[in-house]
Amino acid sequence: MKLLDRFFRSIIRSGKLVVTDVDGNRHVYGDGQGPYAAIGLHDRKLYRDIVMKTELSVGEAYMDGTLTMEDGTHLRDMLELYNHNRRALKVNPWLAALARGSRFFRRLQQSNRMGQAQRNVAHHYDIGNDFYKLFLDRNLLYSCAYFRNDKESLEQAQRNKLRLLAAKMALEPGQKVLDIGSGWGDMALYLAQ
Description:
four-stranded mixed sheet, single chain, Nonspecific Lipid-transfer Protein, Chain A, elongated, alpha+beta, 4 strands
């Protein structure tokens, strides 16, 4: 908790963050003026992970329940507090050095040689269409939809996206498009029309 304590003391200058650690001890950070959030940490691994890869580890810990929001606060309260204090990350030399070191080790860890790249692709795509049908539209478009309002269906929002992309491309006869990463070919079919 020592490293995490130093980290929070360095970045939470304004507002208030209350952290309840694994042992039930409460730690308070900030000047108490401004945004407020309270979190509970339920895994000691978070003490290091939050410092080394803040955004990713906080999001994953929230999803898996090892970080919980407490005292009636919500995730948006914590994000507001973090954004309110974000400048401290850039001006604090200790945190800047820590961020550089973290990026360096992340690059090493994420090295993606040919064999690993093939395994990554297989892990991501070779799981059958039934899984994707659970959350994609009926044409299996595999990228963000464009909702013009909250009443539109996913199918309509995907059609909106295709129309918008086609208009932005201003395609003319004879031009070619390489469709990578938008799904099972629906964008290519739409653009061909």
